[in-house]
Specification:
Blueprint (H helix, E strand, L loop, with lengths): L25 H18 L6 H8 L3 H7 L3 H22 L7 H16 L2 H13 L4 H10 L1 H17 L10 H22 L7 H19 L7
Protein name: TetR family transcriptional regulator
Keywords: DNA-binding
Organism: Paraburkholderia tropica
Length: about 230
């Protein structure tokens, strides 16, 4: 056993080095994901680097790599979080009313507000531009975004059908839900993507929502007998 030369007492060994945490603390993880989101949306996936992200987040590379070993994994985490936050907010909204048109309008407005927001448009641009080179990122976005929203809308339509408000038997709940979000998103998203320096007014968004909802209502909403 090692001893101090002067006293002969056992030498105090240094404590063993602490093992790094396998994942950063929640608050630090949020900081990293926020930084990653901002860097990816500003520079695109290919041009963004983990060096940029760790500097933006004010953390070490080892902290980033401990949770996300590759840039693709980090971007997938950003996609999951951004899409998941919107899906959760949609689930928490109360759409159950006796007025099916009003319910559909609230659903459409909540979805379109996200789709044409600066963040929503920027994320969509990055995904579409990188999908040919990184198809797994495109699939991750589709599964976490449009598919989840369609599932939430489909569940709403199923409950509305049980109340006798709507009839989508001809196509089924899943297809009807996809049709609904596609009608809502279609013209509005295309116009905003092709006019990047313009921001739609609240009145314009209302018109897009109304046109989409009325189209869907005409196709699927049951009308009173004799109406």
């Amino acid at each position: 056993m090692a001893t101090h030369k002067e006293t002969g007492a056992p030498a105090r060994l240094p404590p063993p080095p602490r093992k790094p945490d396998p994942t950063p603390a929640p608050s630090k993880a949020d900081t990293i994901l926020n930084a990653a989101r901002d860097i990816f949306l500003a520079h695109g996936f290919s041009a963004a680097t983990t060096d940029m992200i760790q500097r933006e987040a004010h953390v070490s590379k080892s902290t980033v790599y401990a949770a996300w070993p590759t840039k693709e994994a980090l971007f997938a985490a950003v996609i999951q979080r951004e899409c998941g936050q919107f899906a959760n907010s949609l689930r928490e909204m109360d759409f159950e009313t006796d007025d099916i048109t009003r319910s559909l309008t609230r659903l459409a407005r909540a979805y379109l507000d996200l789709v044409v927001s600066p963040m929503g448009l920027a994320l969509y641009r990055v995904i579409v531009s990188e999908a040919p080179r990184f198809p797994e990122l495109g699939r991750a976005f589709y599964a976490a975004g449009p598919e989840v929203v369609a599932s939430i809308v489909g569940q709403f339509l199923e409950r509305a059908a049980a109340r006798g408000q709507i009839d989508v038997q001809a196509v089924g709940y899943t297809t009807a839900a996809m049709l609904f979000i596609s009608i809502v998103r279609g013209e509005a998203q295309l116009e905003c993507l092709t006019h990047p320096n313009a921001r739609p007014s609240e009145a314009q968004i209302d018109r897009w929502v109304e046109a989409a909802v009325q189209t869907f209502v005409q196709a699927f909403v049951k009308r009173p007998e004799g109406g």
